[in-house]
Structure formats: structure tokens, C-alpha cells
Amino acid sequence: MNIKGLFAILFVTFGITGLTAQKMGYVNKQEIFTALPEYKQASSDIEVMNAMFQKKGEEMVKDLQTKYQALQQKQSSGELAPIELEKQAAALKEEEAKLQEFDKSSQQKIYEKSQELLKPIEEKFSKAIKDVASENGFTYIFESGAGLVLYADPGADVTALVKAKLGITQ
Questions:
Q1: What does CATH list as the number for 23-165?
Q2: Could you tell me which residues come within 8 angstroms of residue 108 by beta carbon, excluding any fewer than 6 positions away?
Q3: For 113-149, how does the pLDDT look when each residue is reduced to its tens digit (9 = 90+)?
Q4: What is the dihedral of CA 148, 151, 153, 158, to 10 degrees?
Q5: Where are the domains of the chain?
Q6: What's the whole-model pTM score?
Q7: How far lies 6's CA from each of 11, 16, 17, 118, in Å?
Q8: Separate counts of helices (H) and strands (E) for the chain
Q9: Taking the CB of residue 8, how many other CB atoms lie within 10 A of it?
Q10: pLDDT tens string 2-40
């Protein structure tokens, strides 16, 4: 056997040994987040904001529908000259465009608020994961709820450790 062959065998042997020596764990992020009071508050705030925008949008839609119906009645009764009908229809199209813009901007505002409220929670969670990994010698910690872990020894579940690190007592 030549030197290159010997190094290849040693590399494979020590490489495999190195992989088996790594300690891995997994965590259920959703379980942790739903137990955090600040996550519950952020979710509630986002829901309230969403409901507010939804209510306003529904009012705008109802108002627009009423105006369209009134215009149709005027048209069918012959109350409007063709030029006036065109003018009012154009005004309603502008309102419809404003409604679509409102929907788009409200979705953007909800997204931005979600990011603003959830970022500190994500950072706190990441720090807790890093601390648990460091304190307990884990090389990798996977998120079990993401579907990446097909099988795991229940002893590798570090959810309780992360909860403890975050002060969650449930």
C-alpha cells in the first residue's frame, strides 16, 4: 500500500469518527414561541391590526358597492346623460383603485409590524439556542417542526432546555 492510500484510509476513518463524536439535538420552535408571553402579545397586536384593516376595507367595499348600485339605478331609470354616467363611472373606478391600494398598503404595514414585533423574539430564541448548545456541548440543533428531522432520539430533544433558558416554566 502506498502513502496516498494510507492517508485516504486514515482520512475516511478519522472523518467518520469525527462525525459520530458530534452531539446533535432538536427543538420545537413553535412550542417554545407559543409559550412565550411576548410572542402571545405580538400575535395579539398583529391580529388586532389585521382586524382593523379588514374592517376598514370591508367598509370601503360596502360603500363602493352602494355607489355602484346607485349608479346602475340612475342609469336604468335614465336619470343620467351618457357623459355624466361616464364621469361617475370613472370616479367609481378611481375609488376601486384606491381600495386596491389600501389593501396592498395595509398588507405591507401588517408585514412590517410583524417583522418589528417578532425580530426581538427571534433574536432572544437564537441566543437561547446558542447558549444551550454551548452549555451542553451540542454541535448542531435542528428545528423539528420544519420537517427536517425524520427521526430523532427523544433524548436529543432540547426544547425543555431552551424553555428553561428563556424562563418558560410550563
A1: 3.30.910
A2: none
A3: 999 999 999 999 999 999 999 999 988 888 887 766 6
A4: 20
A5: 23-165
A6: 0.72
A7: 9, 15, 16, 53
A8: 5, 2
A9: 12
A10: 545 434 554 555 555 455 568 888 899 999 999 999 999
